[in-house]
Amino acid sequence: MKIAIIMGSDSDWGVMKAAAEVLTDFGVSFDAKVVSAHRTPGDMFDYAKGAVEQGYSAIIAGAGGAAHLPGMVASCTTLPVIGVPVRGSSLDGMDSLLSIVQMPRGIPVATVAINNSTNAALLAVRILAVSSDSLRKKLDKYANDIADASRAKTLD
Protein backbone atom coordinates (compact mmCIF):
# COMPACT_ATOMS: atom_id res chain seq x y z
CA MET A 1 0.00 0.00 0.00
CA LYS A 2 1.48 3.26 -1.14
CA ILE A 3 0.10 6.77 -1.63
CA ALA A 4 1.22 9.32 -4.19
CA ILE A 5 1.45 12.93 -3.06
CA ILE A 6 1.70 15.21 -6.05
CA MET A 7 1.62 18.97 -6.42
CA GLY A 8 1.69 21.43 -9.26
CA SER A 9 4.72 23.32 -7.94
CA ASP A 10 7.38 22.95 -5.27
CA SER A 11 5.88 26.05 -3.64
CA ASP A 12 2.90 23.82 -2.71
CA TRP A 13 5.11 21.66 -0.47
CA GLY A 14 4.52 23.98 2.49
CA VAL A 15 0.89 22.81 2.42
CA MET A 16 1.40 19.25 1.21
CA LYS A 17 4.07 18.26 3.73
CA ALA A 18 1.34 17.86 6.38
CA ALA A 19 -0.02 14.95 4.31
CA ALA A 20 3.42 13.36 4.31
CA GLU A 21 3.63 13.76 8.09
CA VAL A 22 0.24 12.10 8.62
CA LEU A 23 1.12 9.20 6.34
CA THR A 24 4.42 8.78 8.15
CA ASP A 25 2.62 8.75 11.52
CA PHE A 26 0.33 5.97 10.26
CA GLY A 27 3.21 3.99 8.76
CA VAL A 28 1.92 4.38 5.20
CA SER A 29 4.55 4.64 2.50
CA PHE A 30 4.32 7.45 -0.01
CA ASP A 31 6.18 9.27 -2.73
CA ALA A 32 6.04 13.05 -3.17
CA LYS A 33 6.55 14.60 -6.58
CA VAL A 34 6.00 17.83 -8.50
CA VAL A 35 3.80 17.06 -11.49
CA SER A 36 2.44 20.13 -13.28
CA ALA A 37 -0.74 19.92 -15.33
CA HIS A 38 0.33 23.02 -17.25
CA ARG A 39 4.14 23.00 -17.40
CA THR A 40 4.67 19.24 -17.88
CA PRO A 41 1.34 17.82 -19.08
CA GLY A 42 2.94 14.82 -20.79
CA ASP A 43 4.73 13.86 -17.59
CA MET A 44 1.48 14.29 -15.65
CA PHE A 45 -0.44 12.01 -18.02
CA ASP A 46 2.30 9.36 -17.91
CA TYR A 47 2.45 9.54 -14.11
CA ALA A 48 -1.31 9.20 -13.69
CA LYS A 49 -1.66 6.42 -16.26
CA GLY A 50 1.18 4.47 -14.63
CA ALA A 51 0.08 4.99 -11.03
CA VAL A 52 -1.55 1.58 -10.66
CA GLU A 53 1.51 -0.19 -12.07
CA GLN A 54 3.69 1.84 -9.68
CA GLY A 55 1.74 0.32 -6.77
CA TYR A 56 -0.21 3.37 -5.61
CA SER A 57 -3.55 2.89 -3.88
CA ALA A 58 -4.62 6.55 -3.99
CA ILE A 59 -3.32 9.93 -5.12
CA ILE A 60 -3.34 13.13 -3.10
CA ALA A 61 -3.03 16.05 -5.52
CA GLY A 62 -2.48 19.61 -4.35
CA ALA A 63 -2.81 22.57 -6.67
CA GLY A 64 -3.41 26.29 -6.54
CA GLY A 65 -4.88 28.81 -8.95
CA ALA A 66 -6.64 27.05 -11.82
CA ALA A 67 -5.93 23.81 -9.94
CA HIS A 68 -6.32 21.47 -12.87
CA LEU A 69 -3.94 18.82 -11.53
CA PRO A 70 -6.38 16.74 -9.42
CA GLY A 71 -9.04 16.58 -12.12
CA MET A 72 -6.66 15.88 -14.96
CA VAL A 73 -5.02 13.10 -12.96
CA ALA A 74 -8.44 11.65 -12.09
CA SER A 75 -9.28 11.59 -15.80
CA CYS A 76 -6.30 9.28 -16.39
CA THR A 77 -6.72 6.72 -13.58
CA THR A 78 -9.37 4.81 -11.71
CA LEU A 79 -7.50 5.25 -8.42
CA PRO A 80 -9.12 7.50 -5.82
CA VAL A 81 -7.86 11.07 -6.22
CA ILE A 82 -8.06 13.47 -3.30
CA GLY A 83 -7.70 17.12 -4.24
CA VAL A 84 -6.16 19.70 -1.94
CA PRO A 85 -6.91 23.28 -2.97
CA VAL A 86 -3.83 25.36 -2.22
CA ARG A 87 -4.31 28.99 -1.26
CA GLY A 88 -2.59 31.19 -3.77
CA SER A 89 -1.96 34.89 -3.97
CA SER A 90 -5.40 35.72 -5.30
CA LEU A 91 -8.97 34.81 -4.33
CA ASP A 92 -7.75 33.30 -1.04
CA GLY A 93 -7.86 29.77 -2.46
CA MET A 94 -11.50 29.88 -3.53
CA ASP A 95 -10.44 29.63 -7.17
CA SER A 96 -8.59 26.40 -6.41
CA LEU A 97 -11.42 24.99 -4.32
CA LEU A 98 -14.04 25.64 -6.97
CA SER A 99 -11.83 24.29 -9.74
CA ILE A 100 -11.24 21.01 -7.91
CA VAL A 101 -14.73 20.46 -6.55
CA GLN A 102 -16.57 21.20 -9.82
CA MET A 103 -15.57 18.09 -11.72
CA PRO A 104 -17.86 16.80 -14.46
CA ARG A 105 -19.87 13.63 -13.92
CA GLY A 106 -17.76 10.54 -14.34
CA ILE A 107 -14.49 12.08 -13.11
CA PRO A 108 -14.75 12.13 -9.30
CA VAL A 109 -12.24 13.96 -7.15
CA ALA A 110 -12.68 13.94 -3.39
CA THR A 111 -11.94 17.47 -2.23
CA VAL A 112 -10.85 18.69 1.19
CA ALA A 113 -10.73 22.21 2.59
CA ILE A 114 -8.27 24.81 1.37
CA ASN A 115 -4.72 24.01 2.55
CA ASN A 116 -5.93 20.93 4.46
CA SER A 117 -3.63 18.17 3.28
CA THR A 118 -3.93 16.64 6.76
CA ASN A 119 -7.52 15.62 5.99
CA ALA A 120 -6.48 14.44 2.53
CA ALA A 121 -3.97 12.06 4.10
CA LEU A 122 -6.50 10.90 6.71
CA LEU A 123 -8.99 10.18 3.93
CA ALA A 124 -6.32 8.20 2.07
CA VAL A 125 -5.61 6.21 5.24
CA ARG A 126 -9.35 5.53 5.63
CA ILE A 127 -9.46 4.25 2.06
CA LEU A 128 -6.56 1.90 2.78
CA ALA A 129 -8.10 0.84 6.10
CA VAL A 130 -11.02 -0.79 4.28
CA SER A 131 -8.66 -3.70 3.65
CA SER A 132 -6.24 -3.29 6.57
CA ASP A 133 -7.14 -4.18 10.15
CA SER A 134 -3.92 -2.63 11.46
CA LEU A 135 -4.69 0.73 9.82
CA ARG A 136 -8.27 0.58 11.06
CA LYS A 137 -6.97 0.09 14.62
CA LYS A 138 -4.58 3.03 14.20
CA LEU A 139 -7.48 5.17 12.96
CA ASP A 140 -9.57 4.14 15.97
CA LYS A 141 -6.73 5.15 18.28
CA TYR A 142 -6.31 8.45 16.41
CA ALA A 143 -10.04 9.20 16.76
CA ASN A 144 -9.91 8.42 20.48
CA ASP A 145 -6.80 10.55 20.94
CA ILE A 146 -8.30 13.63 19.27
CA ALA A 147 -11.54 13.14 21.23
CA ASP A 148 -9.56 13.01 24.48
CA ALA A 149 -7.61 16.11 23.47
CA SER A 150 -10.86 17.94 22.77
CA ARG A 151 -12.36 16.87 26.11
CA ALA A 152 -9.24 18.09 27.91
CA LYS A 153 -9.87 21.58 26.54
CA THR A 154 -13.38 21.79 27.97
CA LEU A 155 -13.81 24.83 30.17
CA ASP A 156 -15.40 24.13 33.54
Kindly describe this structure:
The chain is globular, with a radius of gyration of 16 Å. A 5-stranded parallel beta sheet has the order 2-1-3-4-5. Helix 1 runs parallel beside helix 5 (117-129) and helix 5 packs across helix 6. The chain is built from 6 helices and 5 strands; from the N terminus they run E-H-E-H-E-H-E-H-E-H-H. With 156 residues, it is of the alpha/beta class. 44% of the residues lie in helices and 19% in strands. The protein has a single domain (2-152), classed as Rossmann fold (3-Layer(aba) Sandwich), CATH 3.40.50.1970. Strand 3 (56-64), helix 3 (69-74) and strand 4 (81-86) form a beta-alpha-beta unit.
The CATH architecture can be given as: 3-Layer(aba) Sandwich
Structural class: alpha/beta
**Separation, N- and C-terminal Cα atoms:** 44 Å
Structural shape: globular
Nearest-integer average pLDDT: 96
Short description:
The chain is an alpha/beta fold.
